[in-house]
Structures are given as structure tokens and as C-alpha cells.
Amino acid sequence: MMHNITLIYGDGIGKEVIASVKKIIDYSGADINWDIVEAGYSAQERYGTPLPDHVTDSIKKNRIALKGPVTTPIGKGFRSVNVALRKQLNLFANVRPIKSYDGVDSIHKNVDFVIVRENTEDLYSGVEHMVGEDAAESIKIITRKASERICRFAFELARKENRKKVTLVHKANIMKLSDGLFLNSGIKCSKEYEDIQFEEVIVDAMSMKLVQSPQDYSVIVAPNLYGDILSDLSAGLIGGLGLAPGANIGENIAVFEPVHGSAPDIAGKNIANPTSAILSGIMLLKYIGEVNRAETIEKALKEIFKDRAKCTEDLGGSLGTREFTQEIINQMKG
Ligand code: NAD
């Protein structure tokens, strides 16, 4: 079956890592018609906006996209394309699997959990203003509807992937109303999923526990900001941002993208690790039902990881992005 999928290369290393995953997916034989559109700096230059309407229209039509990272200027310039996309397409769940691989140097082994991050509200709502000249205020928005929706999503994911525990992260001891509402939504949902263990942990304690014993976790559900921070922390536990994939999921719509950003410090040098983009591509293939092809790519990746010489520099190897991609394709050939 042919699939129409929107493809956005993005900025910086996005161009390199998305080229890599596209080449691998095309080689896998999946029947995909890529609808290539531009977002980010290049779109800003060409269309005067980093997120032209035809980009969101393409994703709305195809219902699936693969996206590279987009640079977001700090403090000035355009607003985050990612935040805008997530809001416009109502991509309410950000799913970030964290898995350690044999052969990859990492602080921890045998790690396998998924972070489910609420993607539409919290301090990312963009409601900010100056109060006079010397103070600024950001509004943290937490609603019952979005909190229950994300908690239910986390429990459903646990059931689907045969995971036994959901851990809800919050700071309700201080933010009694906003995080309190998120926590109560999780407690309410947990009563509908008695087959799955439920626990709640305060975000500061969770940061320590994740660093000490990440093997204790299976599904972690969190409001937007804590989910964002904990997923970078978690990527650090299993070998770095080059290994962390992600998906933004809404109602019958999904945008797959690596967790990392556009990495301007290494962009254009053919040294970025495309693994997080490739793992995002594997998630995409599974989502569209191409499970066998997804597993073939994952198997090839696992084999490559066993031989450091075939890896990129961040994993202790010496291959460039393109050469690493070719190694995976050679491995897929068998
Ligand atoms: P970053 O993730 O781009 O880079 C952080 C560090 O990790 C850098 O040292 C970088 O070289 C390294 N790194 C990242 N990905 C790597 C890879 N695949 N292989 C090897 N090393 C890798 O974070 P940043 O520097 O804070 O952000 C740069 C830009 O990206 C900013 O404009 C930010 O807003 C944007 N950003 C976009 C997204 C997105 O589009 N989803 C996500 C995060 C950041």
C-alpha cells in the first residue's frame, strides 16, 4: 500500500539526518510518496514565515510527517515552529522512547522506558508579558481535559506495549492547583487501569532517581516542561541526544522527529549521528503498519552498534553521517 508522508528536512543537522533516514526507509522498500516541504530558516527566507500554511496543510492532508529539527532563535525572532505545529495540529502527546543498546557506551544498561509528555499547554502556552519594565510573567496553564487525555494516552500505551507501570511526574507540593490538577487527573485515570501499577513522584526526586536507577521505570507521564527536561536527561543516560527518537501524536495524525535540535555547532560537517532520526523513522514505519521493514532496520542498527568502528564519532567511532548510513544499508543487504 502506498503511503503519502510529509517530509520536512528542517535546519542545521536536520538536512543530514533526515536525508539519512529517508535513504534507509526508501532502501527498505516501503512504498512511500514523500511530500517534501520546507519549514524553519529556509522557509523564512523563501516565504517570509518559518511555517507556511502549505506545510500544515500537507500534514493535515497526509496525516503523517517525518520532520527534522528547526532552529528557534532565543529571545527574539520567530516563535517556535515546533510549538506552533503541535498547537495547530493538536499533537497532544509527545512520545519519547529511551532505550539502551548493547555496544553503545552509556551510563546505564538495560534501560527501556517511554516518556509521554503533554504537548499543548503548561508553560509552553506562550502566554507571557512584561509587568512594567523590570518583571516578566509567564502563565502556566493546566486543564483537566488535556491532563486526563495525556494520562489516558500513557495508560493505553502501557497496555499496548505490555508495560507494567506508569509513573506520573509533578510538583504538586508547590504548585498545588496546576500540578495538583495534573496529579488528580492521573489518579482518576489510574482507577480505570487497575492492571497497570501507578505511582507519582515529585520532579526533583524523579531527576535523581532517573540518574540512579532508570531501570525502575517503564512509562513516565509528565506535563510539558518536566517532560521536556527529563527526556534530555534520559537521553544522556543511554548515550546522548543522537540516540533519542520521538513522535508527536494527535487524533489520527502523527509527526515523527528526533528529540535533538538543529545542532549548529556540528551542522554541515557530516558528523551528526542520524540514529535518533532513524529510530523516529522506525517508529513511523511501525505506526503505518510496516512492522517487518521497521524491524529489519532496527536489527541492522543493533548489529552496527556492536562494532564501534562502524559508528559515528559521538559513539566512539570515526564514520561520518553518510558513511554510517551506508553501513546500515549494507547490513540490511545481509
Ligand atoms: P541541540 O540538540 O541541537 O544540541 C545539543 C548538543 O548535542 C550539541 O552539542 C550538539 O552538537 C549535540 N547533538 C545534538 N544532536 C546530535 C546528533 N544527532 N549527533 C551528534 N551530536 C548531537 O540543542 P541546542 O544546541 O540547545 O539547540 C539548537 C537549536 O535547535 C535551537 O535553535 C533550538 O531551539 C532548536 N531545537 C529544535 C528542536 C526541534 O526542532 N524539535 C528541538 C530542540 C532544539
Secondary structure blueprint with pairings:
Elements: E1 3-8, H1 14-28, E2 32-37, H2 41-47, H3 53-62, E3 64-67, H4 81-88, E4 93-99, E5 112-118, E6 128-130, E7 136-138, H5 144-160, E8 165-170, H6 178-190, E9 197-202, H7 203-212, E10 219-222, H8 224-237, E11 247-250, E12 253-256, H9 275-287, H10 291-305, H11 321-333
Parallel strand pairs: 1-2, 1-3, 3-12, 5-10, 8-9, 8-10
Antiparallel strand pairs: 4-5, 4-11, 6-7, 11-12
Bound molecules: nicotinamide-adenine-dinucleotide.
Can you describe what's shown?
With 334 residues, the chain is α/β, with parallel strands linked by helices. The protein has a domain at 3-100 and 240-333: Isopropylmalate Dehydrogenase (3-Layer(aba) Sandwich). The chain is built from eleven helices and twelve strands. The strands form two sheets. The chain has a ten-stranded mixed beta sheet with strand order 2-1-3-12-11-4-5-10-8-9, sandwiched between helices. Strand 6 (128-130) and strand 7 (136-138) form a beta hairpin. Helix 1 (14-28) packs parallel to helix 11, helix 5 crosses helix 6 and helix 9 (275-287) packs antiparallel against helix 10 (291-305). Belongs to the isocitrate and isopropylmalate dehydrogenases family. Residues 4-328 form the Isopropylmalate dehydrogenase-like domain. InterPro entries: IsoCit/isopropylmalate_DH_CS, IsoPropMal-DH-like_dom. One of its GO terms (molecular function) is NAD binding.
